[in-house]
Design brief:
4-stranded mixed beta sheet, about 25% helix, about 750 residues, single chain
């Protein structure tokens, strides 16, 4: 029995000895391996990765599979600047799994990791390391599946820091307090959950959660960005916009679902918001600023170019447009010019043309917007502010025409209403309805001083605009009402572009209620590079003013009748009439009514006739009357005389007999021969007709209650009648007009020269 025990004890002792030796060897490895590994890495760092590496300490526990690396540093190529550093790396590895060609880590903890990343064009400060381990294109890729399996659990990165600098665009931002949690990564069967959190160096933080199912090529990402400061993105904006600064914060709450094998098979939902945004140009002028812009997306499906939004909201946007010169504004030169080489956008064929996005939104709304127009080119700078803008679109759909309604305040006084009907994708076909109410007329004094030399001192304006754009041709109908307009005296220090007496024009256009009502049509082709809405408006305004100056009495009559008056600047007459017609009485009634609304006016009536034709008419009139008397008509009526043809054979035979008996020369011409016989009575009749008509006008106005001080019938003296060569009419005029007025053609030339 003792022998058997002795025999069995031999293998046990051998086994124990072997285990003891292995333990001693492992203990020796535990003791000597870390410094050896540390020394090897530091001595062969350039050979391994081409960079200097230093490590303070490496601890290895092969019994428990624990590896700890402390204070490791990776340097730049200059061997003095630290590129990356690591305070501590802790890894818990199942050693027994190595025997089965599996690397299983129960936990990996990385703390105090810091890295500096520099980019200069397409080169990074780690590009040489990447190239060192890259497989040359000439070497076929190794597609042999690896026999090793890798499972990493409980990966934790904490208290880490990444700093990124783009040398060319001077971009500089970083992540502080970077933390990352990944419960598991199984490279053989990836169904991983990852969580990432870090704080940005300039403010804000990012939280993400990611679920990946590699077998089904599916992923689900929650992306929560909190108060990311847009200052860090400004260097990239400067590549496109000349700007001095950009501030604001970006916050998102997004969920992205998609496939890893089809990058465009992606749907996005959630919220995006920007707050306190401001973009400042190189002259330190604010280009645009806003309080809040927010979007809540039900689903944005990238593959089908569709976006379904629950809401889109914009609040506190402020934009200022400044005219700084003839062709210079604060937006001129704002965009960075891109060279032809820089534009790498591929030209798409018809088959490759990008499918337009279909965007729907249950509610689109704007609030507290502000737009300011400023013109610094005028002697007195002009600034016009539209503020407190509110508006909305219900049920927006990019595939059809939509209707938007806006309401706003103007300057310190006045209101604005806008209705837009159209499609954002078809800007060549739009409709606008614009209503302006209670806007002070003095607002436009800088322009009236520039163009006419007169300031506006009072009044309010109301505008009703209907604008249609069809195939980029604009047709705008503008009805303007001006209440109680007032203009000051002409400023002698101003040299206006046009010689137009604005004060007189306002007077002529104002009705009895101290109101002006005018229509200003504007038409043009927006594709025409010479088209300018400003030019057309200025031209339309001066057309109205000059028409008033060309026919002031008609302008006043139109104003008095609300635009329904006829042209009463001329009252046509017949030289052989001795009574006024119904139409002429109607014109005199209009003048009488006009003087009631404008009692300060004095209207002049100046009769003119074409004497040679009138003389001939009266000679023939006397001939025909004498002929009728010779036939037994005792008192021929004017109608009987007018119905008789002077060239009839009976009348001519009667006239020639008269010429023969008088012994005068015979001309064989009815008009000349009638003048020979009836010249003197015809002239007396002509003068009598002139005097009768003047008396009829005078007496009728007096009978209508018009004071003598308000009108003047300028009677023609007998000697003056023979020199009158004008038309047969009364010229009705007033004494208010500045004769130093440019014609519309002259004004057109100046307007066409505007930029």
């Amino acid at each position: 029995m003792s022998k058997i025990i002795k025999i069995l004890r031999i293998p046990f002792l051998v086994t124990l000895a072997i285990l003891l030796v292995i333990s001693i060897l492992l203990l020796i490895v535990n003791i000597i391996a870390p410094p050896i590994v540390k020394s090897y890495i530091q001595d062969h760092d350039v050979e391994l990765i081409g960079r200097k590496i230093t490590i303070e300490d490496i601890d290895l526990d092969v019994f428990r599979g624990i590896v700890v690396v402390k204070n490791a540093f990776l340097y730049e190529q200059d061997d003095s600047t630290v590129m990356a550093s690591l305070k501590e790396l802790y890894a818990d590895i199942q050693m027994r799994q190595l025997l089965s060609s599996r690397v299983v880590a129960d936990s990996i903890k990385l703390s105090g990791f810091r890295v500096e990343i520099y980019q200069d064009g397409d080169r990074f400060n780690f590009s040489d390391i990447v190239e060192r381990f890259s497989t040359p294109d000439s070497v076929p890729a190794d597609t042999t599946p690896s026999a090793w399996g890798v499972i990493l659990k409980n990966i934790l990165i904490e208290r880490s820091y990444i700093h990124y600098t783009d040398v060319q665009v001077h971009s500089d931002f970083g992540f502080t307090d970077l933390s990352l949690e990944i419960p598991i990564i199984d490279l053989a069967d990836i169904k991983s959950k990852m969580g990432l959190h870090f704080d940005f160096m300039n403010g804000g933080s990012l939280d993400t959660r990611l679920l990946i199912d590699a077998n089904k090529s599916l992923y689900n990402l929650w992306f929560d960005l909190n108060d990311f400061q847009l200052t860090g993105a400004h260097p990239y904006v400067r590549q496109f916009i000349h700007s001095n600064s950009m501030t604001g914060s970006l916050t998102t709450r997004l969920n992205l679902k998609g496939r890893t094998d089809h990058i465009l098979d992606l749907s996005i939902g959630g919220q995006i918001g920007i707050r306190n945004f401001e973009l400042v140009d190189n002259e330190n002028r604010t280009i645009a600023a806003l309080d809040t812009v927010g979007m809540e997306a039900a689903n944005i499906y990238v593959k089908n170019n569709t976006a379904s939004l629950n809401s889109l909201y914009l609040s506190g946007l402020k934009v200022k447009y400044e005219v700084l010169g003839d062709t210079i504004t604060n937006f001129s030169g704002l965009m960075v010019e891109r060279s032809a080489d820089a534009d790498t956008t591929a030209v798409k064929t018809a088959d490759e043309a990008e499918k337009p996005w279909i965007v729907t939104a249950k509610k689109v709304s704007v609030a507290n917007l502000e737009f300011t127009y400023s013109d610094a080119t005028l002697p007195e700078p002009f600034e016009f502010r539209v503020h407190n803008i509110f508006g909305s679109i219900d049920g927006y759909d990019s595939r059809r025409r939509n209707t938007a309604r806006l309401n706003a305040h103007l300057q310190n006084k006045g209101n604005l209403k806008v209705i837009w009907d159209g499609r954002l994708s078809d800007m060549k076909n739009q409709k606008f309805s614009i209503g302006v109410a209670n806007l002070p007329l003095e607002t436009f004094t800088p322009y009236t001083l520039e163009y006419t030399g007169y300031p506006l001192t009072g009044g309010t304006i109301t505008l009703d605009d209907r604008t249609t754009i069809e195939n980029n041709r604009i047709s705008s109908q503008n009805h303007i009402l001006i209440y109680h307009p007032e203009a000051g005296e002409k400023d002698a220090s101003v040299h206006p572009e046009f010689r137009v007496p604005l004060k007189t024009c306002l007077y002529l256009l104002t009705d009895m209620n101290n109101k002006i009502s005018v229509n200003l049509p504007v038409t043009g082709n927006l594709d025409d590079p010479k088209f300018s809405y400003r030019k057309f408006v200025v031209k339309a305004v001066f057309n109205v003013l000059l028409k008033a100056l060309a026919s002031p009495i008609t302008a006043i009559a139109n104003a008095a009748s609300g635009g329904r008056g006829n042209d009463i600047s001329d009252m046509l007459i017949e030289v052989n009439q001795f009574e006024l017609t119904a139409g002429q009485y109607e014109q005199l009634d209009a003048v009488a009514e006009l003087l009631k609304s404008k009692p300060e006016l004095k209207i002049k009536f100046a009769q003119s006739i074409n004497y040679p034709k009138a003389y001939e008419t009266f000679c023939l009139f006397a001939l025909k009357r004498d002929y009728l008397v010779s036939t037994g008509v005792q008192k021929p009526s004017i109608k009987d005389i007018q119905r008789l043809d002077a060239n009839s054979e009976k009348v001519k035979m009667f006239l020639w007999d008269k010429v023969k008996k008088s012994g005068a020369d015979y001309h064989a011409d009815v008009a000349q021969d009638a003048a020979t016989i009836y010249g003197e009575p015809a002239e007396r009749l002509l003068l009598r007709g002139v005097a009768v008509r003047d008396s009829l006008v005078d007496s009728y106005l007096s009978r209508m209650g018009v004071p003598d001080s308000n009108y003047d019938v300028l009677r023609l003296a007998p000697d003056s009648v023979k020199h009158s060569m004008g038309a047969n009419k009364y010229r009705i005029s007033i004494d208010l007009i500045d004769n130093d007025v440019e014609s519309i053609d002259e004004i057109d030339k100046v307007i066409d020269g505007m930029n």
